Amino acid sequence: MEEFYDLVDRAVDTAFEENKFYFKAYDYLLTNKIKRKQITEFIESSTAVSLGNLVDDLDGYIKGGKKNEFLREAYGHLGKPRARKIRDYIYSILKDAWTYELFKRPGRKKRTK
Asked: Dihedrals φ, ψ of 2, to 5°?
C-alpha cells in the first residue's frame, strides 16, 4: 500500500510540473486487489486530507474574489484553465478511492441471472 501513496504523490507532482495526467487510481486499486481496510486507511490518511485541501485551494483560486488573494499569489502561475484541469484530476483520485471503498464493502455480491 506504501506504493499507492508514492504513486499518488508522484501523480500530483507530474500534474503540476509536466501537465500530464496518467495515473488512474481505480484501475490501480482493482488490478492490485487492495483490501477495503487499506483503502479506508488511505481515505482517512493525512495524504488524502492534504489532497482535499489542495482541491479546495485550487477551487478558491479558480473562483477568485477578494478573500482568495493569497491563493492567486500561490497558484497564479498556473492560469485558471490549467488549475481547473489539475483540480479535476486530483479530485478524480479521491473519488476513485471513495468508489473503490464502496465496491469492496462486505456482503454478498448480487448475482446476475
From this structure: -60, -35
**Cα–Cα distance between 66 and 37 in angstroms, integer?**
42
CA distance 8 to 71: 23
Q: How far apart are CA 19 and CA 107, in angstroms?
A: 40
**pTM for the full predicted model:** 0.88
- In the block, cell 488524502 appears at 48
Grid cell listed for 59: 477551487
Which ranges of the chain would DSSP assign to H, the alpha helix?
A: 2-18, 25-31, 36-44, 46-63, 69-75, 80-103
Show the cell assigned to 36: 477495503
CA-CA distances (angstroms) from residue 97 to 26, 58, 79?
A: 7, 20, 28
**CA end-to-end span of the chain, whole Å?**
36
| Segment 36-51, tens digit of pLDDT | 999 999 999 999 999 9
Q: What is the pLDDT of residues 72-98, one digit of tens each?
A: 889 989 999 999 999 999 999 999 999
Instruction: Enter the C-alpha cell of residue 109.
Output: 455480491
